[in-house]
Structures are given as C-alpha cells and as structure tokens.
Amino acid sequence: MLSRHTFCRSALVMLALGLPAPASAASILGSQRLSIDFTNLEQAGMKASFSPAGKLHIDRRGLGWEGDANEIVEGWIQTCPLAVGLSWRPATSVRIEAALRPTSEGASGAAAPQNGARLYVRYSPDRQHWSTWQALRPGPNPQGKSPSARGSHFHGDIQVPEREREAYLQLLGAYAERDVPWKSDEEAAAAWIVEHDPEFFARQLPFIGYVEFLLEVSFRGGARVQSFATDVTFGLSGLHVPPRDADVAAERAGPWRFETEQANVDPSGEAALKRVIPLAKCKEISINTQSGWWLKILRDGSARGGYGSSAGDDFDMPAASYDFAQVHRTLGALEYGVGQDASVAFWHERLRTAYGLSTKSHPALVALFEHARQVTKDFAGTRLRELWDQRPPLRNSADAE
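The structure corresponding to this sequence follows.
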C-alpha cells in the first residue's frame, strides 16, 4: 500500500530540513470499517441517506419499497464520511473492499437487488472539499479472501498523484522549520496552512483524510437491502520526528480528524447529525415512519405524503397547508437518537442530500399526519384510509371521527 517512491520522498523532505533521524521508520498499516444495518432505522439514519425518500423506506426487513416484483425503482444510498489514516498523519492511498447484502428474497418473492448495483467513492482532506466520484470494480478482491455471504461485492484502490502533493509537501517542510511542539504533526500543519491560506484545500487535495461512498441500486418491488459494509485499509510512512513534548502525541492513535471551519456548513457526517439546519437555510422537512408512511413539507407550506411507493397511495397538499416556520421550530426541538419510530430530515437549500435523525413517536409528529388526513380529500373512501386503519403512521394516532 505504501509505495517506495512515497516513502523515499518523505525521507528526502526531512533530510533537506536537516531533521534528526526518526525514532521509527517502519511502515504503519491500518484499517477502518464502516458498517450500516438497514434493518435498524436509528443506525441507518445516522450513517447514510437515501433517495427517492418518497418511495424507499426502512423497516425491520431493511431498505426498500412495497411493489410488484417486476417493477424497479432506481435509487441511491450515500454514506457519511469515514475518517482514515492517523490523527497526525493522513493517508495518500487506500484499498477498499465492500459488500452490499440483500435479503434472500423480497417480500413478494423478488430476487434481491444485487445485480446492477454500482459503488463509487470520493475522498477529502478536510471533509469540506471533495474529489470527484470514482467507480470501484465489481466483484470480490481477487487478492483477498473469498466472501462468505452473498450480495454485491466491490473492490478497488484510490491514490493521490504525487503532483497533487507538491505544494503541500513544500508547506509541510516550511511548517517543520518552525518552533513547534511536534514537527511531524500534519494535523497541526494543516491548521497552520488553512490559517494562512483558507482556500488551499479548495485548490489542492493532497491526501486522503476521509472517504465517502455512493451506491446506485435498482430496487425491485418487495426486495430489501439489509446492510452495507466496507473495509478501508491504508499504509503510512513511519518516518517521523519525535515530539518535543510527549504529551502532544498522547492519545493520537485515532483516525484523521482535521476539518476546516467551512466543513460545519455541510450537513453530512456524524457531528452535523446532532444539529438541525437553520430555518433560513432549510428548504424542506421530510418524515419517514417505521410503519411505511412519509410526509414532505416545503417552505411554502405545501406538502406531499403517502404510504410506501405504490401508485395511488400518495396525496398532495397546497401551499399554506402547514406553517413551515412552526413545523421547523417544533421538530427542531425534539430529542433525536432515542428511538426508531420515525426519521426526520432537514434539507439544506444548497444540497441534494439530507440525513435522517431518528426519534421515537411524539405528539408533534402524530399531529402532522393527523392534519394531513383531516384536510386531504384523497383520504376519503380510498385505500389510504384502509392503510391508515391497518397500519397508522405512528403510535397514538387516533382514527378520525
């Protein structure tokens, strides 16, 4: 994983600076794993987003939709960023092995949607600026172990070109000439670079601090995706200058963690999942329940909703049906990560993805669905009423009088 060229180049940088011999020059090998259980609404909502949210939903069988086995919905799954490397030294190349595991068959007898699945990866040095999506090769890694379970398997390598690293290495050398606690601390060096040139990582992507995955899947009616898992392995040069103060290097064995301040604008990843998009930036609020119901409320107060994704099992509501500011304020105050009855997503106006925040049934959520049923004519004498009676959106949803 660690090329001889990369190792020698790091050594030359240190020798050019007149730095002392490192305490250790051995290679550092490591790996990080991302695993998503799509039968667990809370876990899946924290680690991934998916689309179309109006058709796909998560239940105890996994991620999918109710429909005829001969019907297909084209959708995608995007994971949260996964940090790789070490907190003081990021990776420049990684090897990826991944698997998308379906159920043995769908509820309607359909084959699971393993055929046609495509997996892409991108990387970022600071969780704000990203490379383009790169396709991974389908099938198990021929140099790895044979997979023990069925499903869609993928593998591949990504590596940063040396030319992309030239400017960064020069700045890294300049940082090491300074009177700093640890000359080999690339996290501190990256912060110093951004302090003097805030747009540096907008122009250069010189290392792999984070990776993110995008799956495109053909979902057959009734079939489910149960899980996605990937192992990302990396090799780093162990060449380094010991820290002047041992406390600086204490507890630094974790993965890369540097983020630019702008990274907090993008509502992706675990840290941002704990907050709600501000009202001024929020274009939509969507709710998906464990029982299969969904509701999307837009800024103008209009809404769409329904059950599952079958034609005719949905409804539309005109503008001003809801007070968007009030809905945002009420749902923004809910406690998240405490249940799996529903998933609430706040959509940023400049982004095409959103992450669901899982929560338990709450009167505020119940009231939103109740309001839709009471004012929407589509409920009267239709299958929606039957579906509501058989499987209401949330616990404590009373029948209309």
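The helical segments are 4-16, 41-47, 162-176, 186-196, 200-203, 324-332, 363-375, 383-390.
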